[in-house]
Model the fold of this input.
Amino acid sequence: MSERETPIFDAVVRIDRLPASGRSIAVDANEEERAAIAEAMQIVSVESFVATLGIVPFRGGLRAQGKLDARVTQASVVSFEPVPETVSEDIDRVFLPAPRENQAPAPGSEIFIDLENDDFPDHIDGPEVDLSALLLETLALALDPYPRAPGESLDSLGISLGDAEEGPFAKLARLKGGDGEKS
Done:
């Protein structure tokens, strides 16, 4: 058995202790937590990481709605220089208990599936939901996959990709054609 990883910050909600009116979670990561987030995301640094979530009971599970605001620095894919980025993402996620495989649904029971919604609910096992994973996932999906400074390109660095005729196969074709032989 593998040990469960400890979350970077505490955002665990127990469904069985969630009041009917819901509750709020506010996360303002300290310096140590921001360093751990940067390491987990494999980016240069996280200058700020602030999230607010409203959690309400929803069909035996919960619904988390809120906002994540972060300022991060990534390395440019062109020059490897630091590139600052601001992330501001809305969060709306539903967590429902996992279906029991051995227990058939009650006869005549209804199952609600919204076919037009791309976000199917996340399944949970047990009475707790760790929303820190949701916040880290939201940040990871919001990050620019190819960060670079404005106007930065290989040409601005003086690096030429050259024409397709300068590749190894083009040189081979010239060598082959230079001998006058055709195969």
Strands lie at 12-14, 23-28, 45-58, 61-75, 82-97, 122-124, 128-130.
